[in-house]
Every structure is written in structure tokens, then in C-alpha cells.
Amino acid sequence: MTDSAPTLPLVFKGIALFTPGGDIIYGIDPNKQDRWHTHLCTGLQEVLGLSEPPHFLIPSYTATIDRWRDPKTRNLHTVAECYPPVQRYKYLLNALFGTPNLIWQVVPWQEEFCEPLIVESYRSRFPELWDCHDLIIPYHRLPNPWDDFQAAPDLPLPESPNTYVLRLFISGDRSSTEKTLMNLHKLLEDGLKFPYTLKVIDIFKHPEQAEKDQVSATPTLVRAWPTPVRRIVGELEDTERILKIIATV
């Protein structure tokens, strides 16, 4: 595997929606369709088993990136914006959108839309959103990309073989994690035919999960579903080998 960024169209709009607990669901759309925020809320509802889409997270827990070509000069331009609660995830956003070292502009608070107390008032109704599952969820097609998959980390695994549940164990180094995520994201986006979810787990913060998954070195990629469970230890550079291990049932 090379260190190149994920394969993306020259012009696209990317939208990411975070939960207060730190999970992320995101979409990359070359056609720049409307209502993507709504679709991401629906995706969170499906994956976490919520009673309704968490529209109250918009816009305060969102980040957007827009890349377009100037019709006169034909030069490419990129604008990336995020709200204060998610600015700490800039390195992750750059990994997912294939934009190394891109500077994300922090959008000022808009009290009428981003009142923290209002968001906090939903905690009792949506406690799952405040739990940290370390989920990274790509949302590919409209309206429902996971017709057969609604599993969260603490819920039963899906019965359908046409989805993958992956866990990436890392050891807390931000720079190496960003590089690993960027490479793995490119591999999964280019090589897998079915939807997947990826859970990123820091073994220093969650040693019990590492013990449960029999992980003793990092990085380690675990295919938790479909069974049997498979593990890939090392720098995740052999593309053909990784895809073969992940895709073989």
C-alpha cells in the first residue's frame, strides 16, 4: 500500500457529523446533493438504534469541506469549516477526506443554533450519543446505505454477511494514527464491495478491549464480522493480503 490519500473526485463536498461522545459519520459526494446533514442523522439513528434522528446535533457537531473548480481560472479551491465542539478532530477529518495538512476554519458560535445547554438537554433521551464507541462510519448511498446493518459496538453483530465490522487497535500516537487511518481508509474505500464500520481503539485507554480481542501489538486490524474473527498485525502495507483476509468468509 502506498501513503497516498484516499481516492476522491477532483470536486466534491464532504460532510461529517459527530456525536458528543466522539463517533463520526461522514459522506463524500461529488454531486453535492442537498440534505446530506439529514441523511447523516438518519444513518446515526440506524447504527446506534436511536428512537429518532438526532437533528439537534446540526450544525454544532458538524464539519464540511467543499472543493470546486473556478470556472474562469480552472483552479481548484478548497474550503473546510468546522464548529468548536469538533475542532479537536481536525487530524481525523484530514485523514478521512484525504487532505493532509489542510487548515480547518473554526466557525464562530451561533447561539440561536448552537446553544450547548440545548444540546445537553437531549442527553437523557439519547444517552448513546454521549457514549464513546470510537466509531468511524462512511455513508455511501442514499437513502439507506445499511439496509441489513444496524449494529453498534455493544449491540449484537449483524446477521448479514454483506457488511464488515472492523476494529483498528492503535497506541495513542496522533501522527502515526493519522497516517494509518488515511492508508486504511483508502484501502477500504477502494477495495471493499460492501458497507463497513470501523472502530478505532486506543489500547492505552481501553486495555480490556485489547485483551478481549487478543491484541498484543499495534497497529492491529481485527475483522469482527463476518466470522470467523481475523487479525492483521503490523503496518498494514500489503494491500492484496489485507483485502484477501478481510473479504474471505
Protein described:
The chain is of the alpha/beta class and 249 residues long. The protein folds into two domains: 6-144, no CATH class; 146-249, Glutaredoxin (3-Layer(aba) Sandwich), CATH 3.40.30.10. The chain is 24% helix and 23% strand. The chain is built from six helices and ten strands. The protein has helices spanning 36-48, 90-97, 116-120, 174-191, 207-212, 239-247; strands at 12-18, 24-29, 62-69, 76-82, 105-106, 135-138, 164-170, 196-202, 220-225, 230-233. Strands 5-4-3-1-2-6-8-7-9-10 form a ten-stranded mixed β-sheet. A hairpin with a 6-residue loop joins β3 and β4. α2 (90-97) runs parallel beside α4 (174-191). It is globular, with a radius of gyration of 18 Å. Mean pLDDT is 78; it is low at 1-6 and 141-160.
Summing up helix and strand content along with how strands pair, one would put the structural category as alpha/beta
Q: What overall geometry do the principal axes of the alpha carbons give?
A: globular
State the total count of DSSP E strands.
10
| Domain unit count | 2
Largest sheet: 10 strands, mixed
Protein name: Circadian clock KaiB family protein
Domain KaiB: 167-248
Organism: Spirulina subsalsa FACHB-351
Pfam family, one: KaiB
List keywords for this structure.
KaiB_domain, ten-stranded mixed β-sheet, alpha/beta, 24% helix, disordered N terminus, Glutaredoxin, Thioredoxin-like_sf, 2 domains, KaiB-like
